[in-house]
Amino acid sequence: MAAAAGLTLLALGVPSAAAAPDFDDQGYLDSTARCSSTNTAIEFGSTEASRVAICAGPDGDYQYRGVRVRDGARLILSAERTDSGAFVAENEGVEYTVAAKSLIISIGEKVIREEPWVDFHTPGSTTSTTPSTSPTKTAPLPPPLPAEEGGGG
């Protein structure tokens, strides 16, 4: 009986996986994948495992702001725009490429992981979409993790 009551309390304390993250033109609310008020969001999106925002500063520099969904690990790096229009950020030999169809994580020429977008936005344009080429979603991403709270600075 006590175990059943404990499971009920646990179930009530876990956010619903059906709740998609809220966003505005700066990125995902209460998330590291959000540009500060002094920066402009160029694009932002979610994969099954990550949330990412590319921000442009007042000086024209780009910033990659990413968070791993499963544990809230954050990564904020300088980024560069490639000739193809993608954005690349590098951290200790690992490259994070924000491309039109996916987030690509690689070391040198070796792709470690390619994560297709399940949600992608380009503020100020009509291209904010859920890509039709993405795999069938079984459930939307959960709301931001507690580790992400206040990550918008």
Please outline what is shown here.
By secondary structure, this protein is mainly β.
Write a structural description.
With 153 residues, this protein is mostly beta strands. The protein has one domain (24-134). It is built from one helix and eleven strands; from the N terminus they run αβββββββββββ. The protein has one helix at 2-13, and strands at residues 23-24, 27-28, 40-46, 50-56, 62-68, 74-81, 87-91, 94-98, 102-107, 110-116, 119-121. The strands form two sheets. Strands 10-9-8-7-6-5-4-3-11 form a nine-stranded antiparallel sheet, with no helix packed on it. β9 and β10 form a beta hairpin. The termini are far apart.
Sheet with the most strands?
9 strands, antiparallel
| Largest sheet strand order | 10-9-8-7-6-5-4-3-11
What is the overall silhouette? globular
Task: Name the helicity range.
Answer: under 10%
**Overall average residue pLDDT:** 79
Radius of gyration: 17 Å
Count of discrete domains:
1
| Terminal-residue CA separation | 45 Å
Structural class: mainly beta
Please tally the helical runs, counting DSSP H or I stretches of 4 or more residues.
1
Order of helices and strands: HEEEEEEEEEEE
Strand content: 35-45%
The total of beta strands comes to 11
Which residues form runs of ≥5 with pLDDT under 50?
1-19, 130-153
